[in-house]
Specification:
- The chain is about 55% helix and about 15% strand.
- It has helices at about 15-30, 60-65, 70-85, 105-115, 120-130, 140-150, 155-160, 165-180, 200-215; strands at about 5-10, 35-45, 55, 100, 185-190, 195.
- The strands form 2 sheets. The chain has a 4-stranded mixed beta sheet. A two-stranded antiparallel sheet has the order 3-4.
- β1 (about 5-10), α1 (about 15-30) and β2 form a beta-alpha-beta unit.
- α1 crosses α9 (about 200-215), α5 (about 120-130) crosses α6 and α6 (about 140-150) runs antiparallel to α7 (about 155-160).
- The longest helix is centred in the first third of the chain and has 17 residues, at about 15-30.
């Protein structure tokens, strides 16, 4: 019997480990096959909610926030690049010079969920920022990416320019903060099981198999 899993993937557009976590989760679900199907809903988390519109130089930002040296940053980037390549994702981190505000991207993702295109938009946003080096706070970029994901560009513009879904995004951010989610990616399965971090495919696979098996047990 196939188990159906509800997965809330709490993440930020500007988080490279969220890319790795998503790719690993997707591949784990492929491995699980007929044991489980899943609905994935992307939930908002802003790593830098106070980031100004113009963004900040990434080396400066990482040094201020984490105390990392330029050498440590390069080593970390190489590790991320290698993990991404192993999962079929291209990190062109030499094109990513700045960290940007991602609130509008989260508003667009909320709308895309209502339209049934959220997963495609999330993947397109990751590629736009980490592979192509585009600015995810630029509304023209967001409209273009939304169009690539199969969404109506005119409606995407209306959403962005109207401020639509701002309250809903802030409510979801606050909800997950109250649940103790302070780092991403955080993967919550069936509102009960938490898997944190950009885990390897094997880790996600084992967890999903256990959760799927547990969901098939009769209620006590």
């Amino acid at each position: 019997m196939t188990s159906h899993l509800k997965i809330d993937f709490v993440s930020d557009v500007s988080c490279p480990w969220c890319v790795i976590g998503l790719r690993s989760l997707e591949q784990a679900l492929e491995r699980v096959g007929d044991e489980a199907t899943a609905d994935i809903h992307f939930q908002p988390f802003e790593l830098n909610p106070q980031m100004p519109a113009e963004g900040q130089d990434i080396a400066e930002h990482i040094a201020q926030k984490y105390g990392s040296t330029p050498e440590q940053l390069l080593r970390n980037q190489e590790g991320i690049r290698a993990r991404g390549a192993g999962l079929g994702f291209t990190f062109n981190l030499d094109k990513r010079f700045r960290i940007y505000n991602t609130f509008d991207a989260h508003r667009l993702l909320h709308w895309a969920d209502l339209e049934g295109c959220q997963h495609a938009l999330q993947r397109a946003l990751f590629a736009a920022y980490f592979t192509e080096g585009r600015d995810p706070s630029d509304r023209e970029v967001l409209i273009d990416v939304a169009t690539q994901a199969g969404l109506d560009p005119m409606r995407a513009r209306e959403v962005l320019e109207s401020g639509l879904h701002a309250d809903e995004v802030r409510e979801r951010e606050q909800f997950y903060a109250r649940q103790g989610i302070h780092a991403v990616p955080s993967v919550i399965v069936n509102d009960k099981y938490l898997i944190q971090g950009g885990q390897p495919v094997d880790v996600f696979e084992q967890a999903l198999r256990r959760i799927a098996a547990a969901s098939r047990l009769p209620a006590v």
